[in-house]
């Protein structure tokens, strides 16, 4: 975050306020040549008195005013003038708006006017409000909520305005990836955000480069999009996380906790170096295939209790546990999912080789530096996050003390490093009306912000989660890898909110995959991403 008192900040980002502090009457109202231009993709009004399109999105034009509306539709409270569209996601639209009185700019997220989305927005609201309490001084690199209200039946969040997402930044760098020191700084901030989440028992559930936005400039970042977030023990959806960043327990459908976010951190850390996703699976089967090819088979205990294991594994008496991962052909025959996995040149059989190949490609003299301590520390960090068994993954508080994050430089330090004992906080119970919090929470939080680590041994971690797993083990029927009857492909599932979300995530994944394809084709013309399409247009 740049110094807000510096001349650079005052004369650039804060110029409007500077002028106004010199002259209160200064009429700083730049003429917008796009005034009246439609920003929403489908612009035919079909509901909500012609205000909403068929997707339930409000049809916005440049210059529209967003504000709280009363039952008569009159505007109340602070008014936000629409400047441009920043992004359109599965839950609605995000608009860059200028506040009429102060001329400050904000990102206003306007949720679709559909019951399921409004319900999920209430969860997002609770999460963002909880985060404000948990992090009153804005130290945890998480998006700040300014206010929320309802505008013509659309739930709106006024958030601080951030910059490009990390995927867009990687793209600007031609997918060459970042240096280890820059990655360390970025990941440290993500971990700080996850520490606060962990302290209040929150699972982000959709960590990916697109949901990490620049806070003015690199390396400053903030984590956004709590639209899929849930509290531990209160998880509603079994289908969470974008596929490339999806953890084994979610893939297999095992009860999950905040450890799923650390899996995503491992994937993101590797991606920031190699410039491309580490596990770019085109289907969930392909995703598991890629994970197991690189990291080894998933633990038998997990496969045994996974509700979806029978989709991906088939009986095979020649194997130690009597089953194996099905081949692509077997999976396709069972699911009618004909998407064909692709080979990506940048991915090598092992994590070490993938990192090494990228490092050699971008070195001046083509020598491998993999033996260097900094690379060994980097690899160790990624592997500590990409532990298939959730309980073995680092928790964010431990990860913050890993030599990769603390700037360790020698092998001795790495060899001697053990994750410090993490003492979990009592489980957080979300308040039924969603506005108040556990009165003990602030003290719990402040104790963790000072990082209360005791001893150096790692014992008793997630005793609760483990007990849950062990209990599920004992209740388990013997493993039967027969495909369940009536097994249906994704497209046949009912169109619930979850299904819509799933479709959207699928579309996002496919969009990235398409781009990946273009990036890999030397002569191919680059296709724009969905988000870029809107950015360019506006
Ligand atoms: N505070 C912000 N500042 C700047 N841009 C933002 C901000 N919040 C969101 N955006 C932009 O809007 C896009 C969509 O926002 P967000 O991820 O919160 O919505 P979503 O509907 O949950 O999206 P998705 O379906 O991709 O998960 C982001 O990818 C980002 O480009």
From TrEMBL:
- InterPro entries per record: Kinase-like_dom_sf (IPR011009), Prot_kinase_dom (IPR000719), Protein_kinase_ATP_BS (IPR017441), Ser/Thr_kinase_AS (IPR008271), Ser_Thr_dual-spec_kinase (IPR050494)
Where is ATP bound in this sequence?
109
Give the EC number(s) listed in the UniProt record: 2.7.11.1
Question: Superkingdom of this entry's organism?
Answer: Eukaryota
Tell me which UniProt keywords the record has, alphabetically.
ATP-binding, Kinase, Nucleotide-binding, Serine/threonine-protein kinase, Transferase
- Composition bias, Polar residues: 439-453, 482-498
Where is the segment annotated Disordered?
425-453, 466-538
Key word Ribosomal protein present: no
Q: Which GO terms describe its molecular function?
A: protein serine/threonine kinase activity
Locations of Basic and acidic residues compositional bias? 499-538
> Protein kinase domain: which residues?
80-405
This chain belongs to the protein called Serine/threonine protein kinase
Q: Which organism is it from?
A: Blattamonas nauphoetae
């Amino acid at each position: 975050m740049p110094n807000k008192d510096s001349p650079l900040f005052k004369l650039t980002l804060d110029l409007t306020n500077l002028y106004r502090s010199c002259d209160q009457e200064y009429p700083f109202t730049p003429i917008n040549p796009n005034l009246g231009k439609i920003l929403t993709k489908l612009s035919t009004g079909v509901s909500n008195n012609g205000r909403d399109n068929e997707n339930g999105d409000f049809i916005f034009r440049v210059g529209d005013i967003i504000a709280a509306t009363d039952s008569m539709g009159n505007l109340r409270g602070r008014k936000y003038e629409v400047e441009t569209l920043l992004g359109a996601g599965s839950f609605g639209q995000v608009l860059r708006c200028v506040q009429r009185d102060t001329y400050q700019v904000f990102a206003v997220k306007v949720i679709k006017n559909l019951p399921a989305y409004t319900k999920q927005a209430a969860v997002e609201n609770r999460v963002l409000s909880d985060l404000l309490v948990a992090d009153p001084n804005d130290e945890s690199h998480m998006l700040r909520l300014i206010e929320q209200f309802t505008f013509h039946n659309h739930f709106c969040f006024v958030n601080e305005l951030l910059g490009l997402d990390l995927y867009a930044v990687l793209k600007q760098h031609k997918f060459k990836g970042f240096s280890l020191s820059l990655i360390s700084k970025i990941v440290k901030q993500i971990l700080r955000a996850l520490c606060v989440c962990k302290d209040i028992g929150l699972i982000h559930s959709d960590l990916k480069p697109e949901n990490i936005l620049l806070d003015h400039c690199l390396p400053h970042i903030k984590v956004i999009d709590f639209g899929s977030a849930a509290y531990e023990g209160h998880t509603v959806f079994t289908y969470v996380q974008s596929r490339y960043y999806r953890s084994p327990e979610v893939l297999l459908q095992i009860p999950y906790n905040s450890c799923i976010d650390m899996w995503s951190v491992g994937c993101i850390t590797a991606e920031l170096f190699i410039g491309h996703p580490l596990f770019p699976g085109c289907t969930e089967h392909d995703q598991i295939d890629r994970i197991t090819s690189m990291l080894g088979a998933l633990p038998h205990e997990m496969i045994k209790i996974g509700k979806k294991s029978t989709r991906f594994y088939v009986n095979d008496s020649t194997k130690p546990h009597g089953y194996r991962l099905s081949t692509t052909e077997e999976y396709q025959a069972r699911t009618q999912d004909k998407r064909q996995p692709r080979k990506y040149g940048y991915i090598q059989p092992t994590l070490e080789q993938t990192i090494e190949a990228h490092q050699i490609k971008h070195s001046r003299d083509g020598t491998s530096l993999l033996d260097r301590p900094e690379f060994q520390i980097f690899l160790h960090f990624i592997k500590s996050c990409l532990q298939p068994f959730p309980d073995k993954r680092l928790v964010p508080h431990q990860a913050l003390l890993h030599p990769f994050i603390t700037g360790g430089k020698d092998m001795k330090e790495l060899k001697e490093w053990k994750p410090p004992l993490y003492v979990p906080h009592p489980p957080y119970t979300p308040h039924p009306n969603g506005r108040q919090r556990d009165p003990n929470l602030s003290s719990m939080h402040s104790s963790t912000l000072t990082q209360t680590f005791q001893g150096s041994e790692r014992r008793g971690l997630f005793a609760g989660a483990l007990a849950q797993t062990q209990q599920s083990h004992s209740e388990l029927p013997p493993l039967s890898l027969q495909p369940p009857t009536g097994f249906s492909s994704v497209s046949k599932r009912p169109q619930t909110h979850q299904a819509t979300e799933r479709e959207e995530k699928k579309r996002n994944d496919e969009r990235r995959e398409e781009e990946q394809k273009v990036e890999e084709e030397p002569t191919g013309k680059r296709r724009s991403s969905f988000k870029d399409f809107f950015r360019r247009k506006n």
